[in-house]
Design brief:
The structure holds two protein chains of two kinds.
Chain A lengths: L1 H4 L2 E10 L2 E11 L4 E5 L6 H9 L6 E5 L4 H6 L1 E4 L10 H11 L4 H14 L15 H13 L5 E5 L7 H16 L3 E6 L2 H7 L2 E6 L2 E7 H6 L4 H7 L6
Parallel strand pairs in A: 3-7, 3-8, 5-6, 6-7
Antiparallel strand pairs in A: 1-2, 1-4, 8-9
Helix pairs in contact in A: 4-5, 4-6, 5-6, 6-7
Chain B lengths: L1 H26 L5 H11 L4 H12 L14 H37 L4 H11 L1 H16 L3 H7 L9 H11 L2 H27 L7
The chains are: A alpha/beta, B mainly alpha.
Chain lengths: ~240, ~210
Amino acid sequence: MVSDLFPLMLKGAETSRRGKRLVGPIDLSLDGQGLCVVMGPNGSGKTTLLRLMHGTARLTGGEVTWACDTATARHHQAFVFQQPVVLRRTVEENLTYPLQLRGVARKAARASAQKWAAKVGLGPHLQRRAMVLSGGEQQKLAIARALITDPALVFLDEPTASLDGRAMREIEAILLQAKADGTRLILSTHDMGQARRIADQVVFMLGGKVHETGTAPAFFEAPQTPEARAFLQGDIVE
Amino acid sequence: MRSLRVTLTALVIACLIALPLAALLAVRRFRWRRATIAMLNALMGLPPVVVGLIVYIFLSRSGPFGALGLLFTPTAMIIAQVIIIVPLIASIAHQSLRELWAEYHDLLISLNVTQMQKVRTLLWDARRALLTAALAGFGRGIGEVGAIMIVGGNIDNATRVLTTAIALETGKGEFALALALGFVLIALALGVNLLIHWVGQTERDSRW
């Protein structure tokens, strides 16, 4: 299924608000393999780039194209936010929600919810209110809810930014498992360590533009631009 | 019991109008949205007597809906109460739905849900807050006297309700009876409130 969506192409894609360009113009091509990490300092446009690709930020110039039509591509995507968004329902109802929207029968949806809750370690909390879960548990729930529809592509916007080490490790394990199951992941982060641990490809952003792209080993071992080098060394890049 | 029947009927109709309206105001961006919200807020303070007067004019023999013969019937009283409590319920409901929408916005947009699904999700997940809105509407309706006195006419065995009976008995100097009726009214209002509160509580550990 993954190959049906890709390649994803951005040609001169940009988004502006009130005449001010927030991101772009961006030219980028992504294939359907592995885990792509979008890196860069705060305000470099990582979130906006993810939203542009997902189709929830307004494209004010250029184009974003998929191998299939946009509506079909959108149907096979999910998005996980930096601050987990959980519905004011139980864990199980949170998980069945996207399935119900797609008309999956209640029984099948519940079975699927049980399976996914177990997968992300929320099995014992199935009937608890999602709002009372810890931050890390809520984010795991959000990721499970994104994965439950078996999407070809999941965007994750700094999913571990506000979490501690243990929750981060658990979430990375879930993501690597999803990747192994064939889901394409595009994740933004400004956590260098995380990028080194899980990235297959890197898109380095600076000032609203894609500054450098490459495979993870190439980028981390031999960055091409001085800004990327400085960023990797932990210098402040703006 | 006529009091209860009139107000509960008005409440159900008002909720059917006000809740979807409040949800739409929360999720849709249309041209007159702000104006509509401002108007609803302003209408919360609508004097019932004026509503009664206007409904009277519309329903009276020479009015546009005179042919329906609704004036001085419970139906006319229900219409007046609906007009009085819709803005109240819609405004209170809109407040909580707007907050919930701010919380859910990104997720629901990302899930590409239809307008209808958005409204249903919001109404369902905010149901406890909406119950409060409905209770406020019930409180305003059950205690209302000005409008239903005008459009109902306070006819014995037909359109006399607790509030209008109290007004009448007080006017006649029958304070004991008026006071007794007053206690019945209070008991009724409290009873319905407690009942709804209890229904809400039965959903366990639903505190946020």
